[in-house]
Amino acid sequence: MYALIVVDVQNDFCPGGKLEVPNGDEIIAPINRLTPYFEYIVQTQDWHPTNHSSFASNHINRKPFETIDVDYGKQVLWPDHCVQGSRGAEFHPKLETVHTNLFIRKGFRPEIDSYSAFYENDQATSTGLKGYLDSLKISTVFITGLATDFCVKWTALDAIKSGYNTYLICDAVKGIDIDNSVQNAMKEMYDSGVEFILSDYLIPLLESSNEI
Ligand code: VGL
Ligand code: ZN
Description:
Helix 3 packs parallel to helix 4. The longest helix has 14 residues, at 148-161. The strands form two sheets. This protein has a six-stranded parallel sheet with strand order 5-2-1-6-7-8, sandwiched between helices. It has a two-stranded antiparallel sheet with strand order 3-4. The chain has a single domain, classed as Rossmann fold. It is built from five helices and eight strands; from the N terminus they run βαββββαβαβαβα. It has helices at 28-34, 129-135, 148-161, 181-192, 199-207; strands at 2-7, 41-46, 67-70, 73-76, 102-106, 140-146, 165-174, 195-197. The protein is of the alpha/beta class. The protein binds pyrazine-2-carboxylic acid and zinc ion. Zinc ion binds next to loops. Pyrazine-2-carboxylic acid binds at residues 8, 13, 46, 78, 115, 146-147, 150-151.
């Protein structure tokens, strides 16, 4: 069994949003083309309280995109984004969500950020996704969404660590790109065993799904 994971396609990560990914909305069409072929689709939603520790505004003398040391390692500070209940936290209106089976909210604990769909940034607190996938006997995951260099990367690395065959659908992800972080993320994913695929190649395989 296989599942599609759609990471954080929310207004705040799209053009005009609080933490916009350049051309982030360009991945919506490829994702919408893929969703009809999947029986299992999981969508994540970054979902922060206003006092979240990843917001630069909650630290004295700190600016967005600076890095600080916290209990669980390094943490990039962000502009306030995806605040619970705000329009920016909603999924992009053009994203097709009809086929989604499971929505996972993450980053709701004030003291800890959560990039990955599997584990929060302490690499220990589970979101429950592994239990869901395992109970459905899903062994392969296809990853799409925003942002390649943060939430997508950590989701892909955790998927590999959790033992799934992991594919990144390259035309269905986009990055923020701070100091070459997209290229570094692609290398890290590649070195960890993530496979790269394009949706034009994948769709015919899904149509004759015995090959997956
Ligand atoms: C993300 C930074 C902060 C992401 C979420 O979805 O990649 N990046 N929160
Ligand atoms: Zn966030």
